Amino acid sequence: MKTLQLLQTGQLSGDKRLALACGLETFPPEIFDLADSLEILDLSNNRLSRLPDDLGRLKKLRILFLSQNLFKEVPQVLAHCTELTMIGFKSNQIIHFDEKSLPPKVRWLILTDNKIEKLPDSIGELKRLQKLMLAGNRLTSLPDSMSACIELELIRLSANRLETLPPWLFTLPQLAWLACAGNPFTNDHLLQHESLAEVAWDDVELHEELGEGASGIISKGSLLDEQESVAVKIFKGDVTSDGYPADEMRACITAGSHENLTNVHGRLHQHPEEKEGLILSLIPPTYNNLGNPPDFDSCTRDIYEEETVFSLSLLMRIATDIASAAAHLHEQGLMHGDLYSHNILVDDSGHSLLSDLGAASIYHHAEGISTEAFERIEVRAFGCLLEELLDRCLPEDITSHQHLVKQLRTLEYTCMDESVVNRPLFSAINTTLNTIGHLE
């Protein structure tokens, strides 16, 4: 309410960013007083259901968040906000998404957790679209016009009603991050996981909370009959930006054990609130995240601290470990879906762990789609990672190992080949990295 009062009394004049979450039922007209400066507007967590017809007066508006409101349609007035590049409508009640509702500069569109059954054909006109969040809707198909969205790099399709994925999706030249679990075509009901040990809630002791993500809360814990510390993840049960927590749990189980993954020890049962949970390996505090998640400007690419540099030997260790982990996942018919540096934990020696299977998809039962098609999408994500590491390699290492760096750059370019069928599989990437490593 304090921010609203400041807005209404003219004390926010010239501000570029405004956030209001105070039970709004109508759009405050005083926002137009910031028309010459406002770039980011966050009206999430209110009770809004419509926008004013003259919203286009906010001529500098680049980013608009309207999540957790009461919208039942994507407002067509958004098309008049010609500078908008990012729009968020997560967790509304959207059913209708009419043609020509969006401006052409949109790069990042969030429609997670709504009731959308059909996308408009005009979405294919969003030539700059890079990131599309559609998990938790009622989609049964995607419009073929989207094959023209050749800048699309990340798409979340989990928890919908898709009977199949269109062939053109696997030809998009930039697509690197795909999540599609929880759809009929994945046949998740065929999966069996009886081999995973079950751990009763009463046999677990929770300690301090370690972190909270979109799908659940992770705490340090211990098993009453063992001395080893573990991590305990309790799923929230709601749909997330990546899909259903239950699909994440299936993915964790399917992944099995590998030295470069955060491994699962057991599945919780008999939780007093009937919540799902997993017992995971506890990551030592000597491990840190390799990078940071994308920001508004980078959109789909991770960001790094300005001073971040990697020695060539450290770079090689990270790349080899992650390629090995990815190869293992795909041997299980599992796509990570979020292969990013911010989901990689690294210690001082370079030993790396690929974590967070929240966006993972089990695809070996998918109908009508080759397993290699899924894998080659993720290979591009690995190519992006390799590019980021090489861009931050120590200059003296680049100078003294020019031949090795050239080989790594060649591998990077091959992994990111815009002709998807020309990309190598992870087994070949592992062979290449091991060969290069012996030449160092």
Task: Describe it.
It is a single chain. By secondary structure, the protein is α/β, with parallel strands linked by helices. The chain is 21% helix and 17% strand. It has seven helices and 19 strands. The chain has helices spanning 2-8, 245-255, 312-331, 371-391, 395-400, 402-415, 426-439; strands at residues 17-19, 40-42, 63-65, 86-88, 108-110, 131-133, 154-156, 177-179, 198-200, 204-212, 216-223, 229-235, 264-269, 277-281, 288-289, 334-335, 344-346, 352-354, 361-362. The termini are far apart.
Task: Provide keyphrases for this structure.
Leucine-rich repeat, LRR (right-handed beta-alpha superhelix); 440 residues; globular; 6-stranded mixed sheet; 7 helices; 19 strands; Transferase(Phosphotransferase), domain 1
Helicity range: 10-25%
Radius of gyration from CA coordinates: 23 Å
Read across the widest sheet, the strand sequence of neighbours is: 1-2-3-4-5-6-7-8
H and E string: HEEEEEEEEEEEEHEEEHEEEEHHHH
Structural classification: alpha/beta
**Discrete helix count:** 7
Shape: globular
* CATH topology (level 3) name of the largest domain: Leucine-rich repeat, LRR (right-handed beta-alpha superhelix)
Q: What is the average per-residue confidence, as pLDDT, rounded to a whole number?
A: 92
Name the beta content range. 15-25%
Shape-level CATH architecture of the largest domain: Alpha-Beta Horseshoe
Largest sheet: 8 strands, parallel
Would you state the CATH class of the largest domain? Alpha Beta
CATH superfamily of the largest domain: Ribonuclease Inhibitor
Q: Give the N-to-C terminal Cα separation.
A: 61 Å
Are there runs of 5+ residues with pLDDT below 50, and where?
none
What is the tally of beta strands? 19
Count structural domains: 3
